[in-house]
Protein: Signal recognition particle receptor FtsY
Amino acid sequence: MAKDKKRGFFSWLGFGQKEKEEEQQQPEQPVEQAEPQAAETPVEPAAAKLDDKLPAQESEPAASVDTPGEWDNGQAGEQIAENLPAAGEHPAAQALAEEIVSVTEQVVAQQQPVVEPEPVVEPEPVVEPEPVVEPEPVVEPEPVVEPEPIVEPEPAVEPEPIVEPEPVVEPEPVVEPEPVVEPEPVIEPEPVVEPEPEPEEEALLEPVAPAAAQEQERPTKEGFFARLKRSLLKTKQNLGSGFMGLFRGKKIDDDLFDELEEQLLIADVGVDTTRKIITSLTQHASRKQLKDAEALYGKLKEEMSEILAKVDQPLDVSGKTPYVILMVGVNGVGKTTTIGKLARQFQAEGKSVMLAAGDTFRAAAVEQLQVWGDRNRIPVVAQHTGADSASVIFDAVQAAKARGIDVLIADTAGRLQNKSHLMEELKKIVRVMKKLDDQAPHEVMLTLDASTGQNAVSQAKLFNEAVGLTGITLTKLDGTAKGGVIFAIADQFGIPIRYIGVGEGIEDLRPFKADDFIEALFARED
Structure:
């Protein structure tokens, strides 16, 4: 209220507009408000005195206080002019007004200088540069102290484990080279003195015979039988013991016979031979001679054993001097290798042997046979590659007769059974041999590769028609599951099977024995 009265009074005197103008020019600030209030406080008591003296005068100005801003400058002048005579009429009021005006001017004077520094106070925000203190984050380089992890080289102290070279003292075990004294056992080569028997070259052949005789005896024992079983392992998957899974726990019926027939055909037993076996088993079953599948298994073993029993005829080379064996067969079945193994076995039996290199077509065939001869100290009759095979064998027969050789084994070039001109060449060789010996060759042996399967049957047929086979050697039985072809050949031709090859070693070429073969084939694995 005091302010309202003051303002009304100032408006009465005409000073209110000046204050308003100043207030418009200089907006109030919190600091400005505090100082005017302090300055206005002494004015208020003076105003109070004026209120006491002039109660009647305030009423009129009070009404004008409500709309001071609505007056214009002309009106303000008129009111001041009207009020001045009133002031003359009341000297006390005029004196008081002058006093108030002087006080007001002082207050205004105080406000103006105070207001002026206020903008200067604005520089105080210039104190904001204090954020420049933010460079203190530049102190962040302190993380550069992180190089302290470089102190990690302290693990470099780990080189102290390099002190471990102290175990290098272990070279003391190097004293172990004393076991190098073991080379003294190298003195064992003194047994190499065994070559001393070499002066007994004549006697050398005799010790070889007993040694080979021992090798001959070993196969007759279980050792060879076990090796035979192992060699026939693949063939047994389809034949022999391979039937156990087929017969176990089943009844004898048409389905069983169908499965058995399929199994025999897979093993390359051959169609004709398979039908013969199945027919025989069916007849026995219809007569109720077979009670169960186990009995059928036993009967199957008997049937197959009978087929091989017909061709179980070992080769006998006695009674003829020389006993001439002519080896025939297609390419790559192992004729030359079989010749070398046979020569070693005959030599082990104490017989003198000679070889004829009749294969003058294949490269290195002559050299291969000569290597076998050198190993066993067996003479080899040979000519250059491309020479006439018949002439080479003719010379060999003459030489064998002149030297009294017990066994002459003649090699021939491999030829396919369907090449008629090559088969004619083979016939020529036989005719030339008969000029020197009517009964020669005493043995025409066909070498067959068991892995060829039914093609071996075709080979046996055509070679038999060309030169009349008297024996068969079946090789590579250890590497095939088609060993059943032996039953087809034996059943169709009845040609004696002299030898079977079940491995690469010299002792793996053995005389064929039907019983051993069947037992090994049907042997049950525990």
Q: What stands out?
A: The first helix runs from residue 2 to 13. Residues 2-126 form one domain. Residues 229 and 520 are 5 Å apart (CA to CA). The chain is about 55% helix and 5% strand.
